[in-house]
Amino acid sequence: MIGAAGARARRIIAAAVLALAAFAQEAPPDPEHPTFGVTVVDTSGLEGKVYLIKHNSQRLPDFARLKAKGSIYTTSLNVPPRSFHEGFPGVTNRFEWFAIDYNGRFWIDQPGIYQFSLLSDDGSKLYIDDRLVIDNDGVHPAMTLVESAELAAGAHRIRISYFQGPRFEVALVLKVARPGGRFRIFSTREFRPTHGEDWK
Q1: 89: DSSP letter
Q2: Residue 47: which of 73, 9, 68 has the closest Cα?
Q3: pLDDT at res. 25
Q4: CA-CA to 130 of 20 to 30 Å: which in 70, 103, 147, 148?
Q5: Which residue numbers in the chain have pLDDT < 70?
Q6: Is the pTM of this model over 0.70?
Q7: Rounded to an integer, what distance in angstroms lies between the CA atom of residue 184 and that of residue 176?
């Protein structure tokens, strides 16, 4: 009886450990350990579809010709230059030769000229309302480009396309400066309707 009880206890503990490990992979991002996103669905943020790309790719792929391996979600892109070797738990273990195509929406209360800063290693592009705003494509070390866009009040679409070439260094940081303001990390939480406006 003691042996059977002990075996049952070990099975319960093992199941709990597995559950905790799964939760850890799907928990919200830890600010101290920036991520490209998590697998928990968040409709208020950006959805990033993850793709595998050919070795020795030099530029962003044609996503329409590829099949996504899974999706990750985030409200901001704040991965400063760092080593990346853990892959995407629950999506793919690939840590090089992958691409992510993020799409989402944001709301502008104050119309005017907004500045955007996009840092990436390797290539990236920023689109707003299907218009290319920043082209930071290609295989390169961490590099930042800054451009501006005039935005009307209301809803806008945003897309950030990113790819990682050879191992191991990665980076992807999107910042925004409101009219007359300073740069800060772009977050969909700060650009959503606040007075009951309709996203349409």
Answers
A1: T
A2: 73
A3: 40
A4: 70
A5: 1-34, 196-200
A6: yes
A7: 6
